[in-house]
Amino acid sequence: MAKNEKLRVIGWTKYSPEYKEWYEVHGKEESVESVELIVMNELKKRKFKFGGNYHQYGEYGCPVLSDGTVFLTSMRGWGGIMADVWGGDYCCYAWSNVEDVRGGKAPTEADAATPLKYTKEELEEREKKRHEAQKQIQKELAERRREEARQLKDDKAVLREYLSNLLDKYEGRKDELVKFLANDIIGIADRYHAKPMNCHMKWVLYKSERNRVGKEAAKHRKEWLAKFKKDFGIKESDSENNS
């Protein structure tokens, strides 16, 4: 493509990893919106209408651009492009083929074009970068799991302390404690910063006690809500301001 030539779709092909991809070649050199708009205009002009599955695996599912690159996106991304062109929800197109889309139409052999290919050295370098990227992802995932494990350990420590305090407070009054928890008072405690509870612990306590007690506890909600407010020193005006 000449330096000042406007980028356009010159044909269609089946995706192959040896073909140069537009995103990989250009990166953020050009805006994503501009190349997608070029593809969308071509789809509308030629009345092509097919899903993301055909885009990635079909015989002529990938647009070939005038710079020799192939435009390839995710199935969801292609579904979004189709939805922008023809209306409807992206899900109607994302994982579909030609025949799955109402009024579906795909390019034919007459529309075929041959993209530029990576050299052997470029393919080797590409594979090396892909491998390095995967290693980095695995490293980040492992660190995230370690952090989640540390957080869970901290959560359990706070949870044990919280339950211990409740058991001391309601010593000898087990039924009262169960009703207290079952009415989602944990959520209220968190809301008023009465105890250092996070969403995970709130869910554990609420679900376990709620399932155990059942619907019967709901009858006592108003009574135990008032008791909770009294026990934790929450004034009615405070609850109204935070509701």
Explained architecture:
The chain is mainly α and 243 residues long. It has two domains: 109 residues, no CATH class; 107 residues, no CATH class. It contains eleven helices and two strands; from the N terminus they run βαααβαααααααα. The protein has a two-stranded antiparallel sheet with strand order 1-2. Helix 2 packs across helix 4, helix 7 crosses helix 9 and helix 8 packs antiparallel against helix 9. The protein is elongated, with a radius of gyration of 30 Å.
Summary of the model, kept short:
With 243 residues, the chain is mainly alpha-helical.
Largest sheet: 2 strands, antiparallel
**Number of H- or I-type helical stretches:** 11
Q: Please identify the structural class as seen in this structure.
A: mainly alpha
Rounded mean pLDDT score = 77
Distance between the termini: 63 Å
| Total domain count | 2
